[in-house]
Each structure stands twice: as C-alpha cells, then as structure tokens.
TrEMBL record:
Subcellular location: Cell inner membrane; Cell membrane
Name by which UniProt lists this protein: Small-conductance mechanosensitive channel
InterPro entries: LSM_dom_sf (IPR010920), MSC_TM_helix (IPR008910), MscS_archaea/bacteria_type (IPR045275), MscS_beta-dom_sf (IPR023408), MscS_channel_2nd (IPR006685), MscS_channel_C_sf (IPR011066), MscS_channel_TM-2 (IPR011014)
Organism: Limimaricola variabilis
Membrane topology: Multi-pass membrane protein
Amino acid sequence: MEEETQTAPREDVDSLAAVDADTGNIFEKLDAWADGFFRLLPNIAVALVLLVVFWFLARGVAALVRRSGRARGRDNLGDVGASLLRWLVMILGVMLAVTIVAPSISPGDLFAGLGIGSVAIGFAFKDILQNMLAGILILVRQPFEVGDQIVSGGHEGTVERIETRATLIKTYDGRRVVIPNADIYTDAVVVNTAFDKRRSQYDVLIGCSDDFDEACRIMIEAAQGCEGVLSDPAPEAIPWGMDADGNTVRLRWWTDSKRSDVVHVWGRVIRDVYNALNAAGVDLPYPTRMVLFHDQTEATDGDRTAQREGWPAKGDSPEARRIADAIRTAATRG
C-alpha cells in the first residue's frame, strides 16, 4: 500500500509565512528603537542637566522675589509672585529640554501647543483661575492687608493670610473663614481698620419735659471722662428726635478702629452716661402704653345691657365716672 502523505492546506502555509515575516519586522523595529535611544542618550543627558539648572534657577528667582516682597512689607505678594515665577521658569526649562531631546520639534510648535492647551485648561479650571487672578489683583492693589479687620459676605474678622485662591480671616469668636478671592473682589468689603479712628454712636431717650441742652452737656462730659474715648474729634450730643415715649439725643464718640477698643469703650460710655443722667435727675423713660376700657368708667358698670364696650359716647350714653370713684365705691361696699 502506498503511504498517503498529508500536506497542510495552502491557506495555512501562507498565514504562517506572514506571521514569520511580521515577527521579523517587530524585532527590526525594536532594534531601531534601541539604536535611536542610544543615539539620543547624549541629548537626554543634556536635557536632564538643563532641567536641573532650570530647577535651581527657578528656586533662586523665587527666593529673590520672596525676599524683595518681605523687604517692602508685602509678604503675601512676594510668596504669590515667587510661586508663579518658579512655575514659569520650570515650564520654560521643560520646553527647552523637549527641543533638545527631539530636535525635530521647534520652540514655535511648543508655543502653539501651549496656547491651545492654555485655552483648554482655562475652560476646565475657570473658577480656580478666576480666584487666582482676583487674588493677584487684591495683592497688587491692596484694598486691605494682613491684620486688617474686614466685613465680607456676612463674615467679620481679622485677615490672617491672602493666598492665590482665597483669603483667610479669623472671626472674633475664634473661627477661621475661607472666602474665595473672586467673591471678595466682586463684592463690597468693609475695612474697619482702614483708618486709625472709628466713630460710634448711641441714641438715648430722655423725658419729654427734660432740657435738651442740659442733657447733651451731661452726656458729653460723661463720654469725655471714659477711658479710650478720643479727645480729637471730641464727643458730641445732638438732639435727634421727638418720639412718642420721649425725646431722643444721639451721642457720638471716636475710638481706635480696632474691634476690641470699640467694644470695650462702648460699654464704658453707656454705663457712665446712664449713671450721669440718673444722678442729675434726667428722666430715662421706658416705652409707656395706656389701655383704657371705656365700659369700666361709667355709672352702668356691670350692667351688660347698658355698656357701650368702648364705642364713642352719644346723646343717650350712660353718664361717665372716674375710675377713682369706682374704686372708692367698691371699697365701701366691701
């Protein structure tokens, strides 16, 4: 019997040959990549050295800017400027290193790619960049400084630090509030310590029959004697109104602008002015209200069929009587 020889199909032979050819191509590419890497080793070494040089250069520039800011009393501005310049120098160093490693890439291509990337980054980090720009403007224009006492967004306290993203304030009850710089820059901010002096005022109600001039004199003398009240500008008292329960006098005085001085002097002024007015016999009236029940002031008190229940008197109304007479009559019957 003749032995039957089995041969592989033609298609399988062609596919195996293709695999062998592709494997050889892969090794050729790997070999070419290795040769290219070894040829680029000097460029890579130069690029690494350049990065190290730019790293030290960035640190030196940052230290110089920070030292200059501290010398001028602008510590926060120096810190922010140093951080931005450090990153700028490092980005420039990375771009130069890329052009050394890949000579086919020109600096113009890098700047073009950086411009497109900046637009994308701007859209992605819009809020962060907005706060950063607002922080830089605050540091440059200085509407307030570290240590100032401000009111912003319903928060009041002492400025601890101004960063690129937010401003940190310490409230008077010992809490920290972080306010985004964009909110501070676009909203109204009250700087309580922008000036050395700060005015306080309080309305005092005196009796309707009391003399305005005498009450004003007593209040001014009492305020002048309080510790912490400034003599220039001097305290003043102004007749301010004739109200339902008495006459109003507005007392004004000046103190140091710090919150602690304002609060403590306020308490001393209120205390001393009250004692002085009370000692001088000036009336300090409380709000007074009188409720009059008309049906309890008439001779028919107790007779529900004849009581007017507070309506105005007419021609056939019962005879009115005084409350004192009613009390006397009730006591006699008792």
